[in-house]
Amino acid sequence: MRKILFVFLILAVVAVVGFLAYLELRVPEIVYVDDTTHSWADGREMVLRRLYNSGVDIDAYFEKVEDMLITADFTDDEIFAAALASGTPEFFPAFYFSMHNPDIAENEFVFTAMTRQEQAPGQDDFNFNISNLYLEVTTNGPMISDVELRPENAGNSDTDRVTITPVLSADGRSLAVELDNISSYNFLISGAGSMTFQYTYDIIYSNLLSSTALEEQLLIVHVNFARSPNGEFIVEYINEPYSDLEEYLY
Question: Is-contact 174 228, C-beta < 8 A?
Answer without folding.
Answer: no
